[in-house]
Design a protein that fits this description.
The complex is a heterodimer of chains A (261) and B (228). The model of chain A has no long low-confidence stretch (mean pLDDT 93). Helix content of chain A is 39%, strand content 24%. Chain A contains 9 helices and 10 strands. Chain A has helices at residues 42-49, 78-84, 103-116, 125-142, 158-170, 188-203, 215-221, 239-244, 249-260; strands at 4-13, 16-26, 31-35, 57-62, 65-69, 88-91, 176-180, 208-211, 224-229, 232-237. Chain A has a 6-stranded mixed sheet, with helices on both faces. In chain A, strands 2-1-4-5 form a 4-stranded antiparallel sheet, covered by helices on one side. With 228 residues, chain B is mostly helical. Chain B has 8 helices and no strands. Chain B has helices spanning 2-44, 49-64, 67-81, 91-120, 123-131, 136-166, 178-187, 197-223. Classes of the chains: A alpha/beta (261), B mainly alpha (228). At the A-B interface, helix 2, strand 6 and helix 3 of A face helix 5 and helix 6 of B.
Chain lengths: 261, 228
């Protein structure tokens, strides 16, 4: 069974069809790279997976369980959506760290709020808080940020900020971790450190969907590549298929633009 | 000089009493207008059209007309037009009328400042909270509120300092605040008449009090400068 299955997802903003019949699946531990020019619908697809947009048609399944079905949208409460979106994590292009919290607090906050809402929190509070703290610290350690746990976001470089954002998303142990152009807001010399940690995550079999403009990175890190164009999947396959033997003229044109740069 | 020194303690005592009334109006207005403003602010960005429309109209009327006229209407309209004197004739009635007019007026100004603060927070903060499984309430209390307070502190301190000086408008309905107390010595009070310096001297009270507030807001801004 696939970990993630997306079936015939459709989304339009007004008269513009941003996603037209998108279907794909992803197995546990695999990395999917979504490539395509701006406006092709990649980001909207990620936002639909994370319930930041509500798709107009189609369905999304995680582990065989339907987490979204456009046929019953509107009848699902905000509370249920909140539970279901925890299957997914999202790392934003612009990080969106919480400025008033330290690095460590940024990573811990959501887990604390979730734990405190559970009935078994009382009585085990000290232990649960300690576990959350340990988890956050070890994640930051993996991101190479153990020196920066007490820093505030404004003190960090872009690359450090993005690594905190990745740790923050990982802290909730999502089934699928999504990245929306994680290096597009970074200086070229800072992209490397972020790509490095994403590579490490791929090696540790984290299931990921990555929207990226870094073609070399997409080729190296992914197990599967989808090239989107104007709201449809234009071409898909292994990195070797898509990058070395593209079948569609549109894909070749797109890739040539990148190689010429 | 001799005369001045004789007048001084009498004038001081009188101005102190007047300033106490000024201070009372300031504090009561602040305590009621701060939450009222939040209510009007939420109303003005509400999803319900009638509520939004009502709040926008209220803000337009209150900000678009002089506070002095609002004071006169609140104080005199019930008695003179509706023939149901709401406030009674005494100082406490004048105070309540003034406090009501000031609270509504400043509530509307605060509402606009709050709205600016809420809208200054990038949408990404809310989205980051959402994808981390937070409820809207948690996002407001744990993420947005402090950022909002930090953002509105400069315009808020500006408005609050203006409020201190605006309390003098309550003189128009004869509230016995500090301007009223200073003016009394021109017409004649406690064997002093034709003295204009007490009225001028009231300015020092405003200056000192606003100086204290300025220091307080500076301290608060510094407190919140640990993040950006």
């Amino acid at each position: 069974m696939h970990l993630l299955e997306v079936k015939q997802l459709r989304k339009s903003f007004g008269k513009i069809d941003v996603l037209k019949d998108i279907s794909f699946s992803l197995d546990r531990g695999k990395t999917l790279a979504l490539i395509g020019s701006s406006g092709s619908g990649k980001t909207t697809l990620l936002r639909c997976l994370n319930f930041l947009e509500t798709a107009d048609g189609g369905s999304i399944l995680v582990n065989g369980e339907t987490v979204f079905d456009a046929a019953q949208k509107g009848s699902i409460s905000e509370e249920v959506i909140r539970q279901r979106r925890l299957h997914f994590g999202l790392v934003f292009q612009q990080f969106h760290l919480f400025p008033q919290y330290t690095v460590l607090e940024n990573v811990k906050l959501a887990g604390q709020l979730l734990a405190r809402a559970k009935p078994d929190y009382r009585g085990h509070a000290a232990q649960i808080e300690r576990e959350l703290d340990d988890t956050a610290r070890s994640l930051l350690d993996k991101m190479g940020l153990s020196e920066r746990v007490d820093a505030y976001p404004y003190m960090l470089s872009g690359g450090q900020s993005q690594r905190v954002a990745i740790a923050r998303a990982l802290a909730l142990q999502p089934d699928v971790l999504c990245f929306d152009e994680p290096t597009s807001a970074l200086d070229p010399e800072l992209t490397g450190e972020v790509l490095k940690v994403i590579r490490e995550l791929a090696c540790q079999n984290t299931t990921m969907v990555i929207v990226t403009h870094e073609m070399g990175f997409a080729r190296d890190v992914s197990d599967y590549v989808i090239f989107m164009d104007q709201g449809v999947i234009c071409e898909e396959g292994t990195p070797d298929d898509v990058f070395n033997h593209p079948r569609q003229e549109r894909t070749r044109l797109f890739l040539r633009h990148y190689y010429e740069q | 000089m001799q005369l001045f020194l004789e007048q001084l303690p009498v004038v001081f005592q009188s101005l102190n009493i007047g300033f106490l009334q000024t201070l009372k109006l300031f504090i009561v207005t602040l305590i009621s207008a701060l939450p009222l403003g939040l209510l009007i602010c939420f109303g003005s960005i509400s999803k319900l059209k009638p509520i939004r429309w009502f709040c926008h109209t209220l803000i337009w009327i209150i900000r678009g007309s002089p506070l002095m006229i609002q004071l006169l209407i609140v104080y005199y309209f019930p008695g003179l037009v509706l023939h149901t004197p709401l406030w009674g004739g005494g100082e406490s009635g004048r105070f309540m009328a003034a406090a009501l007019a000031f609270s509504i007026n400043y509530g509307c100004y605060f509402a606009e400042i709050y709205r600016g603060g809420i809208q200054s927070i990038p949408i990404g903060q809310e989205e980051a909270g959402l994808v981390l499984g937070m409820t809207r309430r948690q996002i407001f209390w744990k993420i947005k509120l402090l950022q909002m307070i930090k953002a509105i502190l400069p315009p808020m301190s500006n408005e609050i300092i203006t409020l201190v000086k605006d309390t003098s408008l309550a003189r128009i309905i004869a509230l016995q605040e500090i301007i009223w107390a200073g003016q009394a010595f021109m017409k004649g009070s406690q064997n002093i008449s034709g003295a204009i310096w007490p009225l001028f001297f009231t300015g020092v009270y405003y200056l000192v009090w606003n100086g204290c507030l300025t220091l307080f807001f500076r301290w608060l801004e510094k407190k919140l400068s640990y993040f950006r």
